Amino acid sequence: MKGLHTDLQPFVQLHDYLRKIDPEELNEWIYRAEANNPWFTAENVKSALEGIVELLEPHALEKFYTSYKKNLQPRKIGVIMAGNIPAVGFHDMLCVLLSGNILYAKLSSDDSVLIKKLAALLITFNPLFQERIFFVEQLKNMGAYIATGSDNSAKHFEYYFRNTPNLIRKNRTSVAVINGEESQNELMQLGEDVFNYFGLGCRSVSHLYFPEGYSPVTILSAWEGKFSAVRNHHKYMNNYEYNKAILLIDQVHHFDSGYLLLKESDSIFSHIATLTYSYYRSKKELAELLQANKDQLQCIVSAKQNELFQSISLGQAQHPAITDFADGVDTMAFLTTI
Fold it and tell me: Which residue segment(s) compose the domain that 103 sits in?
């Protein structure tokens, strides 16, 4: 695109390429990704690629890039990528390259197809990336590390990388605040936040905050027919059946839609095919609950903005802006100041 910094050109080319990707090529990507990981359905792969197109919108990309001073002393950056949703490590790859550093990525076995496809395209658009993008099985002697994983794996990462600059991410999830006045359309948008990627992402809503007296049946009734297609996914339904059996054995009161389980709990984390919910009696109490869980929250979605907490609109959880960093830690600031 005319006028953009030359460093951005390959990413703008990738943006344009993905927008108009040949259907046969896209089907080949989907086939290989799903064969490697059954959670990566055609719908989820397409959604992830559309998200990358949004990230690479040229004007937003330029504004993002010019907000940071480029690292003039390139360093080897070891990145341990997650594999919970398709191409989830792309943002880290983007930040490492834009910051002028060299990427050494250890891919998750669950997402070993799409990131390599995207990297191959970037190398096509800028052959110099061949010396700045590497996929490896072991990460040693790096200038810095970025690692994404569970709370348990984070402890190991913190130990192993303790003498090197590092950015370690832990378990995060997202929640929705219901005010009781949502329209049918708004509840359907909330459903997108819950069901996209089968709820496997840190931006997937796993807990609902209801106003006192709100019936969970309202939610399940609104979603019936729209999201029941998850019944066709065997791994999702295996989780549903297992979690339902546990609730029945433990005699835990719950609501069951036939493909989604709702149970009352203070925990904001939930299992696949399950949502937890809790009640609040006032805005002040709600703000206190959110504050208590802030270190585990990736984002909050709600129909209305509230002066006591920051939230994004319903249906937007899986559409992060380029400046929406995982765990709320600025990856570019880290990479340009090490």
Answer: 6-171
Q: Is 204 within a domain? A: yes
On whether the CB atoms of residues 176 and 302 are closer than 8 A, the answer is yes
Q: Which amino acid is at 230?
A: V
Report pLDDT digits (tens) over 195-227: 999 999 999 999 999 999 999 999 999 998 889
- What is the distance between the alpha carbons of residues 306 and 173, in angstroms, rounded to a whole number? 20
pLDDT per residue over 275-298, tens digit each? 999 999 999 999 999 999 999 999
Distance separating alpha carbons of residues 262 and 207, to the nearest angstrom: 9
- One domain, residues 128 and 259: no
Assess if residue 26 is contained within a domain: yes
DSSP calls for 31-93: HHHHHH-TT--HHHHHHHHHHHHHHT-HHHHHHHHTTS---SS--EEEEE---SSTTTTHHHH
**What CATH number is associated with residue 207?**
3.40.309.10
Q: List pLDDT tens digits, range 292-327.
A: 999 999 999 999 887 788 899 999 999 999 999 999
The alpha-carbon radius of gyration of the chain (Å, integer) is 21
pTM over 0.90: yes
Q: Are residues 15 and 132 in the same domain?
A: yes
- The DSSP bridge pattern shows strands 144-148 and 76-80 to be parallel
CATH number of the CATH domain containing 11: 3.40.605.10
How far apart are alpha carbons 73 and 274 in whole angstroms?
47
d(CA 264, CA 277): 5
Whole-angstrom Cα distance, residue 272 to residue 278? 18
Which position has the token pair 């799409």? 114
In a domain, 1, yes or no: no
Helix 42-55 × helix 90-98 angle, to 10°: 20
